[in-house]
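INFO  loader      accepted 1 record
INFO  loader      residues=91
INFO  predictor   begin
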Amino acid sequence: MPYMPGPAPPDFVLEQRCLLPDGASIEIRLARGARGPAYRLAYLRGGECLLSYERRAAQGDLRVLRGRAAPYAFRSVEQLRYDFERDLETL
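INFO  predictor   done
INFO  writer      dumping C-alpha cells
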C-alpha cells in the first residue's frame, strides 16, 4: 500500500502551561495552521476546564464556559486574549 501523508502538523508559535498560586492553571496553545490560526486558551481548576476558547476541527471556533459551548467569532489574537481575560475575571 502506498504511503498517504496526512495533514501537516500545525506550526506551533506558543505552547505554555502556567500554574497559578491557587493551584489552578492556564493553558495557551497558538499555532499557524493550514486553515488559519489554531488556538486554545483554557482555565483549569481542580482538574476541570472551567473556561476555554478554542478552534475545533469539526465545530469551528468555540467559547466554552462551565461546560456550555457557544460559537465564537474569532477576529484576532489580541481580541481573543481580551475576551478570555474578561471571562476569566467573571469566574
